[in-house]
Amino acid sequence: MKKAYIFPGQGAQFVGMGKDLYDYNEDTRYLFEQANEVLGFRLTDIMFSGNDEDLKQTNVTQPAIFLHSVVLAKALGSSFVPQMVAGHSLGEFSALVAAQALSFQDGLTLVAKRANAMQKACEIQPSTMAAILGLDDFTVEDICQRVSEVVVPANYNCPGQLVISGTIEGIDKACSLLIEAGAKRALKLNVGGAFHSPLMESARAELQEAIEKTTIVTPICPIYQNIDAKAYTDPESIKFNLIAQLTGAVRWTQTVEHMLEDGATSFTEVGPGNVLQGLVKKVNRQASTSSAQL
């Protein structure tokens, strides 16, 4: 019997997130205030009482979700005993801090750099993403390859749900072809750009330098990383995979499958929302899922 802890990515945010943690005790409050200091702005003001639009900005959303997830994991104290961890995109950084491979301050600094670099990449090249529902992965992959513009599979979320990423023209063409091929829906997402695609190359290069200078140590349990859904404990491999993640696909379906194969008997989501629990259930209906509770 193995406990798996999973950490959400962008999209899980909501106004009011983390206020209960801030009020929980002095230790948790200190971490929130430390984050405000490291970032150079009061992230907590936007998290607790800002508006949806401000919270949706990539340079706010990513640190906010990371902060909520990491503080919650730390607040769990001795009851947080992971035997395997994974995070969806941004959540991989939260998972590494929770698994003691990365310090809280270094993790927050990297997440802030990542968010700003991704924001800049979005401004360089107008681009977007779309969720494709009701088609098998192979068909989506095949159609993406047939489009001449940049368009690639970005998030393998669960069977029958694959998010694609690319130029606006490429996404439009691919969506039309995918509907013709039998997709139930091809839903363009309200995102700033083509995350997890070659269009994030400038962000990848910028983050690579920062990650290579950051200390990462052996985690207390294996982390299943997005780029290939495999388990890692070697710090240099973890760094390599973190860098590759920005332009590579998030293989969440395969991650959950591998964790189950390796003995996961329960999945606890640590952070805002319950999106990942729903995805786990779509991969395997029998899987036990829950939210982390103080």
Structural overview:
The protein contains 13 helices and 10 strands. The longest helix has 21 residues, at 104-124. The strands form 2 sheets. A 6-stranded mixed β-sheet has the order 8-7-2-1-9-10, with helices on both faces. A 4-stranded antiparallel β-sheet has the order 4-5-3-6. It is an alpha/beta fold.
Which terms summarize this structure?
294 residues, alpha/beta, Malonyl-Coenzyme A Acyl Carrier Protein, domain 2, Alpha-Beta Plaits, six-stranded mixed beta sheet, 10 strands, 17% strand
- Going by CATH, the homologous superfamily of the largest domain would be Malonyl-Coenzyme A Acyl Carrier Protein, domain 2
CATH class of the largest domain: Alpha Beta
Number of domains: 2
Whole-number average pLDDT?
A: 96
Number of DSSP-assigned strands? 10
* Amount of beta strand: 15-25%
Biggest β-sheet description: 6 strands, mixed
Helix-strand layout with pairing:
Layout: E1 2-7, H1 19-22, H2 26-39, H3 43-49, H4 52-56, H5 58-75, E2 84-87, H6 91-98, H7 104-124, E3 127-133, H8 137-146, E4 151-158, E5 161-167, H9 168-180, E6 185-188, H10 201-213, E7 223-224, E8 231-232, H11 235-245, H12 252-261, E9 264-269, H13 275-283, E10 288-291
Parallel strand pairs: 1-2, 1-9, 2-7, 9-10
Antiparallel strand pairs: 3-5, 3-6, 4-5, 7-8
